[in-house]
Specification:
- With 330 residues, the chain is α+β, with helices and mostly antiparallel strands.
- It has two domains: 158 residues, 2-Layer Sandwich (60s Ribosomal Protein L30, Chain: A); 155 residues, Phosphoribosyl-aminoimidazole Synthetase, Chain A, domain 2.
- It has eleven helices and twelve strands.
- Strands 8-10-5-11-9-12 form a six-stranded mixed beta sheet. A four-stranded mixed beta sheet has the order 1-4-2-3, covered by helices on one side. The protein has a two-stranded antiparallel ribbon with strand order 6-7.
- GO terms for molecular function: ATP binding; phosphoribosylamine-glycine ligase activity; phosphoribosylformylglycinamidine cyclo-ligase activity.
- Keywords: ATP-binding, Cytoplasm, Ligase, Nucleotide-binding, Purine biosynthesis.
Amino acid sequence: MSNTYKSAGVDKEEGYKTVDKIKKAVGETHNSNVLNHLGSFGAFYEIGGYKNPVLVSGTDGVGTKLKVALDTKKYGSIGVDCFAMCANDILCHGAKPLFFLDYLACGKLDSEIAAEIVLGMVEACKDNNCALIGGETAEMPGMYKPGDYDVAGFCVGIVEKDQIIDGSNIKAGNKIIALPSSGFHSNGFSLVRKVFPNFEEEFEGKPLYETLLVPTRLYYKDIHRVLEEVKVEGIAHITGGGLYENVPRIIPEGLCASIDGSKIRIPSIMLELEKRGGVAREEMHGTFNMGVGMVIVVDAEHAEKVLHLLDDAYEIGEITEGAEKINLSL
C-alpha cells in the first residue's frame, strides 16, 4: 500500500468541508472595499475616503483559554476572543478595523469544530464592521495532538494621521475612566486553570465553564461613540499584566495614573479565584484585568459626557505629576 498525505495524518477533504461550512457566513462580512473572495492567494482591500490614512495593525491569540473550550467542547466564543484581542488593541489609537485574518492550527482537523471557531470570528467582525478576508487552516499531526487547536489572528485598521491617539497629549488633571470587562477576557488562564481545575463545578448556579468562556468584550461601538463626541487623550486595552502593565504604556514621562483601587468593580469570579487560590490582591491586578477592560483618559471637563455616553463606564482616578507612571492604591 502506497503512502498518501491522508495516511500521514492530513485530511484535505476535511479542510474543504470547513471552507464549505464557513464560506457564505464569511462573505457576509465583506463590503465594497473587498475586491476578491476566499480562495485567492492574497486578499485585496481597497482604501478610499481618507485624506492622510495610517494603517494600524494588531495580532494576538487566545492563549490557554483554549484549554477550557477544548476540554468542555464549547468552541463558540473562542473566535470572538481571537478577534477581540486584536481589534481592541488597535482601537487604542483611534483606528477603525478594516479587515481580519485568522490562523487555525490543529493535530487532526474536524470541520465542525473549525467552522464553529471561525463563525465566532464572523460574529465579531460583523459587530465591528470589519471584513474577514482570509485565513489559514493548518493540520499538523505530530506537532499537535488530535483534539488540540491553536488560534491566532491579525487585524488591520485605519485612522487619519491627525487623529491618532497615542497618549502624548495626556496632562495632569485628566480623568481616568474605566469600561468594564466581560470577565477574564483571554488573559491569565494558566492561573485560572490551576485554581479552578474542574470546569464543570457549579458557580453561581451554572457550570463554571460558562463563566470562564464568556467572550472578550468588543469595544468598537463604545470607543467610537465617544470619539465622535469627545476629544480623547489616551486609551489603554487592559490585557495580560492588568492595569499595572497596560496603563503606563500611554502615560508620558513625568506623569502618573493615580488609580483608586477601591472604585474598581471586581467581578465575583475574580474574587472567588483570589480567595480560593490565596492570591494576593497585587498579584491579581498584575495578572488579570480585574473587571476593567478598557481605560479612557479625557480632560476633566469631558468626563461627565463620557459617563453619559457609556452607561456602564465609571471614573477610577486621574492623572497627576510623578516619577512612577502608575499608582494603584489597593
